[in-house]
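Q: Make up one entry.
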Amino acid sequence: MAVLGIVGSPRKGKRTDKLVEAALQGVRSAGMAARKVYLIDYDIRPFCGSGGSDDAFGLGPRDLSAMCGEAEALIIGAPVYWGDINGLTKDFMDTVQTPDSNGKPALGVAIAGGSGKGLLSGVQSIYHFFYHRQMRGIDPTPVSRFNMEEALAGLMHSGARLAEAARQRERFPGVGREERWPEVLAHYTTLDYLDDGPLEEFLMLAEQLLELSADGRGKADLDMVDRARIEFEEALDALEAGRTEDAARHAVGCYQILYF
C-alpha cells in the first residue's frame, strides 16, 4: 500500500514541494509507504480537442495514470498563479486517467506564495477535481507565505489521517457514477473552504497577517497592528450585520496595513 504525492510546481525544492513532502512525512509516520512525483518530469499536454473528457484521457502519460490508479490515496500540491492553480497541474487533472477512483482518499494543498490572493480559489480547483472523479477528499489546505509554518505542521497530521483513510477506504455507495452522486455531494458539503469566496479569502489573509504580526514575524509596528485589528473587527461586525460591501472594504484595509 502506498500514497502518491504529486508536485504540480515546476520548481523543485520550493514551497509546493515542501508542503507535499510534509504531508508525505505524515503518511510515513502512520506506517504507510509514500512516493513523490513531479509533473514537470512528464510530457503533459493540454487537451485541445472537442470530443469530451474521454478523449482527453489519451493525452495523459500512461505511467503517471498507472501510478494514480495503483496508489491507495493521492496528495496534490499546486502553486497559485493569478487566482487559480497553475496550468501544468490543471492539464494533468484534465488528462490523467484515474481508474477505480470511487472513494479513493485525496488531499489537496494550494500555495499562493506572493500576495496570498487565490489560496482559497486555488484549493477549490483541486477539490473540484476530486469531487468530479468521486474521490473522498479530506482536509483542504489553503496556504500563503503568511501561514506556511502552520500549514507544514498541519499537513503532517493530514498525511497521517490520509493514511488511515486509505487503510479503511470507504467507497461511495451506489451502482455506477450516477447512483453515487447523492453521497458524493453530501460528503463535499462537509469540507471547509469550498463555498468561500473573495471576501472570506481576504478575511483569512487578514487574520494570518494579524497572527504573524502579533508574534513579531511581520514588519508592522504596534500602531499598525492596532489599526489593522480595528479594521478586522469592523469587517467581522459588518459581515454579521449583512453589510458585505463594508465588510469587504474593512477586510482589505486590514490586509493592506499589514502586508509586506
Summary: The chain has two domains: 2-188, 198-258.
